[in-house]
Structure formats: structure tokens, C-alpha cells
Write a structure and sequence with these properties.
- Helices cover 0% and strands 63% of the residues.
- The protein is mainly β.
Length: 92
């Protein structure tokens, strides 16, 4: 990851090809684990949901480029992706 602030958070992450759990999120990149078959060069589009402090969640919609994916355990991948497009929205 880059020198930007990294936040260790475990959140569900959803994308076109599947889902997973985040490990680290920064303003530029995300690291997560998944069972989806991803590889470097893949583009993913999806969302993250952050709980708000005052009862209103924020949904982070993104498109990201997978920079790397390595096997972690028998059936999980550890993925690193760089955000290309982002949009924040208040959750309904």
C-alpha cells in the first residue's frame, strides 16, 4: 500500500464477482480476503458499508483494479486492489 493512512477494518465487501471481508482500507487501496477467483488485472465494482456514529451509515461504491491476489489457506485469496472510481452515499 501507499503512504496514505491505512485503516485496519473488518467489513463485508461486495463486488460483481463475489464477496469477502476487508482487512485494510486507505483512500487509495483496499486489502481483503475472498473465495472469488480474482487475479491481477481484474476490475471489480462493488460497495462497502461503514456504520455511522449517529445511526446513519455511509455506503462507499467503487470500481477498483486488482493489483495482486495470493492464496491464503486452501480456498481463500488475499487481494490488494487500487480504487479507480469512488462515490459516497448515505445509506437508506
Amino acid at each position: 500500500m501507499t503512504d496514505f493512512a491505512r485503516h485496519v477494518v473488518e467489513l463485508p465487501i461486495r463486488f460483481d464477482q463475489g464477496s469477502g471481508r476487508t482487512r485494510v482500507v486507505s483512500r487509495e487501496e483496499v486489502e481483503f480476503t475472498t473465495q472469488a477467483p480474482l487475479a491481477a488485472g481484474d476490475r471489480i465494482a462493488g460497495s462497502l458499508r461503514f456504520q455511522g456514529k449517529h445511526g446513519r451509515d455511509t455506503v462507499f461504491h467503487y470500481v477498483a483494479l486488482v493489483l495482486g491476489a495470493k492464496l491464503k489457506g486452501r480456498d481463500r485469496l488475499e487481494v490488494r486492489a487500487r480504487f479507480e472510481q469512488i462515490q459516497l452515499a448515505a445509506a437508506d
